[in-house]
Amino acid sequence: MTLFYSFVVVFLVAVFQLGCDVRTELKEMHDSTKKMEKHTSKMVDITEKMEKTTAQVNDSVEATNKEMVSTKEYIVSVDSKMGTLAKDTEQMKSSISDLRTTAKALDNKMQVLHDLNSGINETYDGLRQGDSLGIRVKAFEGLISSRSFEKKMSHAAQYFGAFEYQLYNGLGLDAQEGRREKLILLAVQQFFKDVYDVYNYDENPIPLSDPEKNNDENLEASFNALALALHKDNPKQEEEIGFLVKQDKSLNLQATHMLKLIKSALFSGSELKKGNINLASVSEIEREILNNEEVAIKLLQSRWTILLTAALNKSVKFKEGGFILAAWKLLNKWELNFGLLNESKIEEQHLMLKKAVETREFLKTIGVKTKTPLKLSWFIKRMNVIGYESLSPQSRLVSQEVVKLIDQLKE
């Protein structure tokens, strides 16, 4: 019986154990089922998303297909246009080729024109040189051969007016850089070659030289005429420079003449001696003049004494009655009668004396001693001024200034 109960107990335990195992397995199956449900739910979600994505992709593919169709049509259009462009390019190549041919022909013509223009410029320059030289040679010959001081003055003015720098126009060869300075330098060089033909190597001026007396005095009178005409220029110079400056206001161009050039050079020479400047700052034109410094100074000495003589000659007339009468007046009182002069002559006399004083004062500023020639000094000291009462108030003032200037120049 005991054995039976033991068997029953064992059987029940086994059944219970089996029941527990089954329950456990059922529970695990239940859990697995729940997990599968969750996975299934996720799979459904994923499937739905994939369906949406697929739909979107299908839409994109459809849109892409449309774009590809459009692109294909565009490519066909571009291909057609490229064909047209190719034809246009061929035509353009042909046109460019024709243009190159035309350009080359034009270039050849331009070269011909350039050569022709260069030839014209060279021809003009050569003609101008020849004309300028011819006029100067003829004028200088006339200067020496004339026995009248007035004619000598006329020839001297022609001589200075014919230098090439007076005809500079900024065109052709004149357009070259430094061209005008070269022409001025050539003028200075030529002048200081020519002037030695009438220079007597004496620093003392002889303003009363009589060209009819002998050859030496004729040459001195010719030198005096050059000195008096140093300021003469060619009206063409003013016209051309005025035109060029009007066209280009940045141009630093000014009309010049031999007097201005000589004074500039002598002033630079004075500054050089004082140590205020160095040689490098002296232009080539000024150096050329300084190489002939003694002649340049003599020209200015002669200039102011001739101006004084010419001013006195308005009243004295040295040539009338000959120089014997003029010499006699040196020993006696003579009259400067303003009543015999019209207003124009008095004004001209005044202008001559002002220029004489200006030139003399310039020489003093550069350290050159000046002295009135003895005959002129004696002559001025014996002068008696009359005729004021017949003049207009304006002319009276001018005549009084004339007397002051003469007195300033008597020593």
Describe this structure in words.
There is one protein chain. This protein is an all-alpha fold and 411 residues long. The protein folds into three domains: 18-113; 123-255, no CATH class; 296-411, no CATH class. The chain has helices at residues 2-145, 149-161, 179-194, 215-228, 235-247, 258-274, 284-290, 293-316, 322-331, 343-365, 374-381, 393-408; strands at residues 334-337, 383-386. Strands 1-2 form a two-stranded parallel sheet. Helix 3 runs parallel beside helix 7 (284-290), helix 6 packs across helix 7 and helix 10 (343-365) packs parallel to helix 12. The protein starts with a helix and ends with a helix.
Q: Helix coverage percent of residues?
A: over 70%
Strand content: under 5%
Report mean pLDDT, rounded to a whole number: 83
Arrangement of strands in the largest sheet: 1-2
Q: What number of structural domains do the residues give?
A: 3
Pattern of helices and strands: HHHHHHHHHEHHEH
Number of helices: 12
